[in-house]
Structures are given as structure tokens and as C-alpha cells.
Amino acid sequence: MNSWAVLGLMSGTSTDGVDAALARLQPRGDRVDLQCIGFHTYAFPAGLRAQLLNVAEGHPVPVAEVSRLNFALGHVLADAALRLLRKLQVDARDVDLIGSHGHTVFHGPAGAVRGTASTLQIGEPAVIAARTGLTTVADFRPADVANGGQGAPLVPYVHWLLFRHARRGRVINNIGGIAHPTFLPAGGGVESIVAFDAGPGNMIIDAVATRLTDGRLHYDRDGRLARAGHVDPILLRELLRHPFLRRRPPKSTGREEFGAAVVDRVLALGRRRRLTPADVVATVTAFTARALGDAYRRFLLPHGRIDEVYFCGGGSRNPALMAMLVQELPWARVGVIDDLGINGDALEAVAFAVLAVETLRGRAANVPSVTGARGAAVLGKVVPGDPRRFRKTLSLFA
């Protein structure tokens, strides 16, 4: 049976760099055996993070700047791929495919905006393919949005392939910039998956920590600020009034809902309440935990028993946040995805390696019951690499 070496690239809403993972994948019926060969996060070059945040926050930007940024990020993604291969001492000719999520600078699916639903991920895949010589699959969200879906979350299908259990109800919960749980009912098929964007993950915590330390920190390292502060119940209650939290799935979100405007309001209320910086960080950390706990009670538990919850993403490395989540989810075993044998930091990048394989195999990888799409869709756009290898690449996945 075929197995493939596939490189996954991911730049998430936390905007903290490029995650690059090389994995070997082997299909076994409706499951996938996966070995993560190597993983690394590469920081953005100086100034690029600020430019990406500027666009994603909705500031007026000339179209020429968006075009330039699209190609500049393509080069950064290609650099990450090539640097990881050098680090692992793997020849690019021994890699079969690249899957790249790119970077979301706007996400306005049906129901979230007036007018035409749309989503935009940049990080030009033609640059990645040209620089590496490898066929690159990218731009995974638009096919679902074009079919009336939210275009997010994208990875529940991958979670089902890798982590479902015959007897235990499991939740795989990524906490990146946004927190999105995937509920895999015991013994359930794809149609049983329940998943959605629940609300903020690290996005507000990171932004508040950055602003309150005048840029010395880009995130609350090891949850130190949150653990030094006290949760302010009045500020927390105000944050929990955000209407997105009560909206029923399917739903997805990003900086459009939990970006600079919310951070400005948090800081203003913190000043009015005379809170210390540590108190403010503790409170927004509690907001992420409480919003997730509420989402479980409202939208997941009605669908079945949850025995285990496994967290991944940057939030899973924050001890203060994890302690709060344990308190929010007393009826389940709470762990991290590493407990299941996969590096939790690598999972998002690995997921796009898996999705790229499904694209070349012609298999639909959206979950209409999750995204609200009218039907199944093959995700992603295929950009050939070295033309001499492209026909062989296609034959590998036939």
C-alpha cells in the first residue's frame, strides 16, 4: 500500500510564525497511519508579523501591498519548507507533496457579513512550488465557502481520521488564535462530528500581553502573568456577553470578531477598574476558558458523552489556561494531544499535509454537518512543481 512523505505548512491567526512539519502518511481504509518525521516553528522576518496583523485587522491597505505581501509570505513559507528539510537532512526529491494553509487575512463566510460570502488566505503557493520544485496544494477554505459553508474549521475530518475511538467520546480541541473543539462521538462516522469555532483562544491573551508590556512580550509565557493576577468578575462578565458565544453552530470566526476592537475595550475597562496588567491577563485567560466551557455545555454535551478532551496548539502550553480548563470540564479526562502520540505543536501543520493528500486522491474533506455547506467538496488548489515530476506526483495518489 502506498505511503507518502508530505510537508505541511501553517500560519495561524496567532501570527507567531510558520509551523512546518514533515510527515509520512499511509492510508488504511478510512483511517490514516501517521509518523511525524520532524517539526519546527520559524519566526517571521522582522516587520512581517506587523504587516500581516495590519491587513487582518481591517486597516485600509492598498491592493498593491496585499499583492506584494501575498508573494512575500509565499517566499517565507518556501523558506520554512526548505529549512526544515535541511534540518532533517531530507532531500526535496524524497518528498511527494506540500500542503500549505497560508495565512487568513479575511474571513467572511455566509451569515457573518453582508453581501457576498468570501475568505482570503495569502502565501502564494506558486512561489512555494517554484522554490521547492514540489507540487503544492493550498487555499483549502474557498471550496467549502463556495458551497455555502463556513470554510472553517477545516481539520475535523483529519481529527476523525486520526483520533476517533470505538468506545470513548473524544474532543480534540485546538487553541490557537481561535479555539475550536472537534467532538468525535464514540464509534461515530464522519456525519456524527460536531465542531465549530467556539471563540477566542490565544488571540486576546497575546494582544493584551503585548500591549501591556509595550511589546516586550508577544504572549503570556508559561502563563506567568495570568498566574500572578486575579480574575476580575465584572470585566469577565462583560466579555462573556459577546454575541458570538451564543450563536449556534455552524459558526467560525477570527480577528473580525475578536481582534483589535475587543482588545481596546478590554484595556479601557481594565483602566476604569484600576486593574493591574496581571489582573487583565488573568481575566482574558479566564474568558477563553469560560467561553470554551460554556460552548461544551451548550453545543457539545447534548450530542453525547464526552470521556476525554485533548488540547493542542499554543494554548495547551499555557499552564494557567490549562488549569482553568480542567475546572471547566470536570466530567472528562483532560490531557494534551501529545498523550495520543503526536506532537501537539505540529498537529495543525500535519493536518494540512493530510488534507493535501486527500485533495490529490480526489476525496472530499469538508464536513458539511460542521461547516453548513450544501454538500461535500474536494478542498484545495493544486499548483504543479517541477513539470518533469508532476505526472509522477499525480500517479502516486491515483
Description:
- This protein is an alpha/beta fold and 398 residues long.
- It is globular and about 65 Å long.
- It folds into 2 domains: 4-150 and 346-396, Nucleotidyltransferase, domain 5 (2-Layer Sandwich), CATH 3.30.420; 156-340, ATPase, nucleotide binding domain (Nucleotidyltransferase, domain 5), CATH 3.30.420.40.
- Helix content is 39%, strand content 19%.
- It has helices at 48-56, 63-88, 125-132, 142-146, 156-163, 203-212, 224-228, 233-239, 255-258, 260-272, 277-300, 319-328, 347-360, 368-371, 387-396; strands spanning 4-10, 18-28, 31-42, 97-100, 103-108, 118-122, 136-138, 170-175, 178-184, 194-195, 199-200, 308-312, 333-336, 381-383.
- The relative contact order is 0.17.
- The longest helix is centred in the first third of the chain and has 26 residues, at 63-88.
- The CATH homologous superfamily of the largest domain corresponds to ATPase, nucleotide binding domain
How does CATH name the architecture of the largest domain? 2-Layer Sandwich
Task: State the helical fraction.
Answer: 25-40%
User: What's the number of structural domains?
Assistant: 2
Radius of gyration (Å):
20 Å
Low-confidence segments: none
User: How do the helices and strands follow one another from N- to C-terminus?
Assistant: EEEHHEEEHEHHEEEEHHHHHHEHEHHEH
Q: Class by helix and strand content?
A: alpha/beta
Order of strands across the main sheet: 3-2-1-4-7-14
Query: Judging from the principal axes of the Cα atoms, what is the shape?
Result: globular
